[in-house]
């Protein structure tokens, strides 16, 4: 891992807007981008397709080694390719997200994914979002953000995303799942969701993504001199 290559981390709970923010920042800077949560979702999807049990950490770890994943970031969104297939939408289902959250509690899985995550660190720099990017994966990141929002707001955002895609959803159910996922992420024994000591906290509950982006840009320009 080349520590001379700059990294910006954006951590936070699901639905806080960290993915959208990270993508906008990566495009603006023309840096590489890593959606760390997508790696867990991809693993969940492929494990299900290959009928690998979530309790079989050895097989899951072996599967991670052979995963051929490509990220293509456009202004219109992120395209994720696995085994020459576009799985960008397939990995976003609520069931797959729930499975991914459970996989994230497995020590062997997190350890196996660590190297794959760090391999995304390439010139000219990397913008990445997740739950432990600033605390575990890239503790030496040049700047760290922790983006949050109320569970109700995050559930509403997810609900609207699903409706826009024509997917049936129940707001009450989604909010319950958001709270349960937060509890799992914060209480897991390995790499729990928490703010890095040097991270800047941004509460996006009452902010638009553009307002958050502009606030982040001020910090980035000031600290990276770009």
List the helices and strands and how they pair.
Blueprint: E1 7-11, H1 18-29, E2 32-35, H2 36-49, H3 57-66, E3 69-74, E4 77-82, E5 85-86, H4 94-103, H5 107-118, E6 126-130, H6 133-137, E7 143-148, H7 151-164, H8 171-187, E8 200-203, H9 209-224
Parallel strand pairs: 1-6, 1-7, 2-6, 7-8
Antiparallel strand pairs: 3-4, 4-5
**Terminal residue distance:** 23 Å
Q: Please state the average pLDDT score.
A: 91
**How much of the sequence is in beta strands?**
15-25%
Major beta-sheet overview: 5 strands, parallel
Based on CA atoms alone, the radius of gyration comes out at 17 Å
- Share of helix among residues? 40-55%
Describe what this molecule looks like in 3D.
With 226 residues, this protein is an alpha/beta fold. It has nine helices and eight strands. α3 (57-66) packs parallel to α5. The longest helix has 17 residues, at 171-187. The radius of gyration is 17 Å and the shape is globular.
List keywords for this structure.
five-stranded parallel beta sheet; 226 residues; 17% strand; three-stranded antiparallel beta sheet
Briefly summarize what is shown.
The chain is built from 9 helices and 8 strands.
């Amino acid at each position: 891992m080349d520590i001379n290559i700059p990294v910006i981390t954006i951590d936070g709970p699901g639905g806080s807007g960290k993915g959208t923010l990270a993508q906008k920042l990566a495009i603006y800077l023309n840096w590489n981008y890593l959606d760390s949560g997508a790696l867990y979702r991809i693993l969940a999807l492929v494990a299900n397709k290959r009928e690998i049990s979530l309790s079989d950490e050895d097989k899951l770890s072996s599967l991670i080694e052979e995963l051929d994943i490509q990220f293509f970031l456009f202004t219109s969104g992120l395209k994720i390719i696995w085994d020459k297939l576009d799985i960008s939408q397939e990995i976003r289902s609520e069931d797959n997200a729930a499975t991914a959250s459970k996989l994230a509690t497995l020590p062997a899985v997190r350890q196996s994914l660590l190297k794959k995550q760090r391999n995304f660190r390439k010139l000219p720099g990397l913008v990445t979002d997740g739950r432990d990017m600033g605390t575990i994966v890239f503790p030496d990141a040049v700047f760290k953000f922790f983006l949050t929002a109320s569970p109700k707001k995050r559930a509403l955002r997810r609900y609207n995303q699903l409706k826009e895609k024509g997917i049936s959803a129940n707001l009450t159910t989604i909010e319950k799942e958001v709270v349960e996922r937060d509890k799992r992420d914060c209480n897991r024994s390995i790499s729990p969701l928490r703010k890095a000591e040097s991270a800047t906290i941004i509460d996006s509950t009452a902010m638009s993504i553009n307002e958050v982006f502009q606030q982040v840009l001020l910090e980035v320009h000031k600290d990276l001199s770009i």
